[in-house]
Amino acid sequence: MTSVRYRLAAFDIDGTLVGPSGKLSPATIAAVEGLAARGVVIAAATARPYELAHPTLQPLRGAVSAVIAAAGADIRHANGEPIAQVVLPPEAARAIAQLCDEHDWRAVGGTEEGAFRRLPTPEARGPAATVASLTDVALGRTYVIAPFTGPDDPGFAALESAVQAAGLRAERALTSSGREIMAVTHANAGKGPALLRLCEAFAIPPGEAVAFGDTEVDLPMIELAGMGVAMGDAPRALKDAADFVTGTASEDGVATAIQRVWGEG
Q1: Is the pLDDT of residue 265 over 60?
Q2: Helices then strands (H, E): number in the chain?
Q3: Which run of H or E residues covers position 75?
Q4: Order of strands, edge to edge, in the sheet holding 114-118?
Q5: What are phi and psi of 157, to 5 degrees?
Q6: CB 73 within 8 A of CB 83
Q7: pTM exceeds 0.85
Q8: Dmax over Cα atoms in the chain, in whole Å?
Q9: Which of 104, 139, 160, 247 is the most buried (most CB within 10 A)?
Q10: 10 Å Cβ neighbour count for 123?
Q11: How many of the other CB atoms lie within 10 Å of CB of 230?
């Protein structure tokens, strides 16, 4: 498709690598593994805490080199070795945690000590402590707190106010099952800055990276990369920013795009 040698591929997880089933398809597994075998650095990017990305990525064990987790606040090698991390100010983390308790929101979060869930959803998978109150969580080094809420929730305005007052970042994301969450992180997080830090760690210019995504939280990553690929059900803003649009996750759009960008192995 182009003479540029793309040496890194960053894939959003929910809605990109996996669809509503929450599982990687055989075609996607084969395409990503084939790319890794050709020496391309494979990174998965997600709003999930690092620990909660692993169950979905398990079929790609050995192919994935790095994980951009916690909406860009926690970047690690696949073996868990940190690459770059930015934590929420402890007072701000406690304020967001208190709102989750006050409004009885389901929530997931990632800390230095591991992942946690408040009121787990029925489809929840992966290693995480279940807590009834976020006051039970050590929040000294917290990468993300993601309450399951959105603009239609009466308590959402309080979350927006707390985020603005503390100068934080809050980004809307969707789980593979379609549940809406707000990923609250440090202002210096985000998938765009995280992809830049990852490229620096692997000594690969961003222009030699390809980013794949399906929601506006992926937009900074799409804009930074040398090539951006939007999934077929992505919003118009993402499609307009991308270099091309592929099929949906259910249509094995990632596998189709890999073939288009890198060609036959």
Answers
A1: no
A2: 8, 14
A3: strand 74-77
A4: 129-131, 114-118, 107-111, 142-147, 180-185, 169-174
A5: -60, -35
A6: no
A7: yes
A8: 55
A9: 139
A10: 10
A11: 29
The three-class DSSP label of residue 43 is strand
Q: With CA atoms as reference, report the closest residue to 115 among 134, 102, 99, 94.
A: 134
In which residue are the tokens 């189709």 written? 256
Return d(Cα 210, Cα 42) in angstroms, integer. Answer: 10
**The tokens 């402890």 sit on which residue?**
90
Number of other residues whose CB lies within 10 A of the CB of residue 88: 30
Token pair 């809406």 is at which residue?
A: 180
pLDDT in tens, 61-113: 999 999 999 999 999 999 999 999 999 999 999 999 999 999 999 999 999 99
- Tens digit of pLDDT for each residue in 35-53? 999 999 999 999 999 999 9
Question: Which 8-state DSSP code applies to residue 216?
Answer: G
Paired sense of beta strands 129-131 and 114-118, if any: parallel
What's the first-to-final CA gap in the chain, in angstroms?
Answer: 14
Query: What DSSP string describes 137-197?
Result: S--TTEEEEEES--TTSTTHHHHHHHHHHHT-EEEEEE-TT--EEEEEE-TT-SHHHHHHH
Query: Which whole-number Å values give the CA distances from 157 to 104, 122, 160, 162, 163, in the listed order?
Result: 15, 27, 5, 9, 10
Pick from 232, 233, 154, 144: which is nearest to 181 by CA? 144
Can you tell me which residue has the tokens 């929840």? 124
Q: How far apart are CA 118 and CA 179, in angstroms?
A: 15
